[in-house]
Amino acid sequence: MPKPVPPHLNQLRLKTNLKMAISKLKFTQEKKVALTKQQRRQLAELLKTGKESSAKIRVENIIRDDIYIELLEFLELYCELLLARLNMILDRPTCDPSLLEAVSSLIYSAQSTDLKELVSIRDILIYKYGTEFGKEALENKDNHVPDKIVRRCGIEPPSEDLVNMYLVEIALAYNVPYSGLERFKGDEEEGGDDDNDDGEGGTKEEVLEKDDKEKPLAELAEKPSVAASKPQTKSTPKQQDDFDALAARFAALKNTPK
């Protein structure tokens, strides 16, 4: 459990750690994004030389990094919220209902990151609201931590359909061969008649790409991607949810320089 923090230091430490965490979260995201772009180019080379088995193994690292990036995006928003409502945290003995999700999520997910600033924030929040509150948040006993955070803190391997979808997107982005493209093109042709019936002017792909530039990051993370909107092989609700959760990553992938 966290070490006791003198009350007069709570405000200074929490404010400082929140600011440092926001800065570190942004830096880590940028670093990870740059790394995954490099990894995508390497995977494209593997597909180009016909090494699909190796590509399927290595793409799991990209998927895990993308999920981790999304986790950091949400945590950044939570930190910004707590910083904006710092007085509400310091002046009230119990956690305000409007902050339960943010506070519980930061406590729950801090151990899933390698950022010491988040660990410090977790410790201060647990000291502030009590060890019992901290224990319940760590166990998500009252389900204040949303599924989008719980899933991104998980360690389950990606589904076969998700791996295939990533490789399809990489193959299309870099114009390299991939056996999964045949099934993808077949599904695309089956659903082709409906692609222009969106009532918005232009194809669904154009409308979605326009929306990607206008909507906040948190909303994009929950919106289906262009690839996910097209017919896919039959998958479980959890797998489909995974597809939706990575929408922002697919949007970035489409704009990856060759």
From TrEMBL:
User: Pfam families, alphabetically?
Assistant: Ist1 (PF03398)
Which terms under GO biological process does the entry name?
A: protein transport
- Cite the Gene3D superfamilies for this sequence: Vacuolar protein sorting-associated protein Ist1
Read off the InterPro entries from this record: Ist1, IST1-like
TM regions (residue ranges): none
**Where do Basic and acidic residues bias regions lie?**
201-222
* Annotated spans, Disordered: 184-244
Biased region (Acidic residues) positions are 187-200
What does the sequence similarity comment in the record state about its family? Answer: Belongs to the IST1 family.
* Protein name, entry field: Ist1 protein
